[in-house]
Write a structure and sequence with these properties.
Helices cover 34% and strands 27% of the residues. The protein has 313 residues and is an alpha/beta fold. Helix 3 packs parallel to helix 5. The protein is elongated.
Length: 313
């Protein structure tokens, strides 16, 4: 796949000396879903704003679909749809008019069939004549997405699109994003719900302190950095772990009578067979065993915590 967005050494320092972006390099591939993860203040929104031409970078370059965002702003911005964090809609305007108007802002001819199709896909057609102020928060977010899609962008930025909506509506949004990807739209998603990234993203980019820590395919990242845990249920609680098992790094489980063994799932040997033999040799009887894998959230927290630790050292 070729890159539809290329970011080179992008920097942004605000008046007062705050550095929000510190040499960001990132290539976003056409047709992918990229999840941009980072703690509060990491630079996510500043990065999106710079790509969309809302914030002027201090240095560096952004190219969208072959157009430099600085030198050919209109051509680059016409390829971009943006769904911002904040719900900023005209409260007394009707849904249908709102979406039509947004299309017109990009110089697109009126296309009622296209607007109807977008509203139907977002379950907004029945609300087309409703004023925005009459809608729920989740429906307002759908209107923001409809506005962003009205001029047929090739790249869609979703900045915290499911913040404040219930779980059911969040999952509906995931399906909408998957449908857009199937239509060839490139999607960049920022979210605090890391299970959202785990569910729908193709690649993960982690940003911290204005720098990209890594960019990697989600599945490869989880295989490479994920760890597994083996939970061992014994037939009776232990007062202490026998010295013969000290080398395994066993920890008491959340339930009495359980032990947790962590291991690298990508290692040549997991050590599980040896552990089970040593448990038996120590006179411990097993009732059950189960495994679980690291979630993307645990990997993300570890990455960001590691970055903070490096800064302190």
């Amino acid at each position: 796949m070729s890159a539809i967005v290329t970011i080179s050494d992008l920097r942004k320092t605000y008046d007062g000396g705050l550095t929000a972006l510190n040499g960001v390099d990132l290539a976003i591939e056409e047709g992918e879903i990229l999840a941009l993860l980072g703690p509060n203040g990491a630079g996510k929104t500043t990065l999106i704003s710079a790509i969309c031409g809302i914030v002027s970078p201090s240095a560096g370059q952004v190219v969208v679909g072959g157009h430099d965002i600085a030198g050919a702003y209109r051509a680059a911005r016409a390829l971009i749809g943006l769904v911002p964090q904040e719900i900023s809609l005209e409260p007394f305007e009707k849904v249908l008019t709102t979406v039509r108007f947004s299309r017109g802002l990009f110089g697109k001819r009126r296309d009622d069939a296209l607007v109807e199709s977008i509203l139907r896909k977002l379950s907004l057609w029945d609300k087309r004549d409703s004023q925005v102020k009459e809608l729920s928060g989740g429906m307002k977010r759908r209107v923001l997405i409809a506005k962003a899609l009205s001029h047929e962008p090739r790249v869609l930025f979703l900045d915290e699109p499911t913040a404040g909506v219930d779980v059911e509506l969040r999952r509906d949004m995931w399906e909408i994003v998957k449908e857009l990807k199937a239509q060839g739209v490139t999607i960049i998603l920022t979210t605090h719900y890391i299970e959202e990234a785990e569910a729908i993203a193709d690649r993960i980019a982690v940003i911290s302190k204005g720098q990209i820590l890594l960019v990697e395919e989600k599945d490869k990242l989880m295989r490479r950095m994920g760890r597994k845990q083996l939970t061992i249920e014994l037939d009776r609680p232990l007062e202490e772990i026998p010295e013969a098992l000290a080398g395994y790094g066993l920890e008491p489980g959340p339930v009495a009578g359980t032990l947790v063994y962590s291991y690298d799932s990508q290692g040549e040997r997991t050590g599980i067979t040896r552990l089970l033999n040593d448990l038996q040799a120590a006179g411990l009887q097993l009732r059950d065993v189960s495994t679980r894998e690291s979630s993307l959230e645990e990997i993300f927290v570890g990455l960001v915590a590691g970055d903070a630790g490096e800064e302190r050292s």
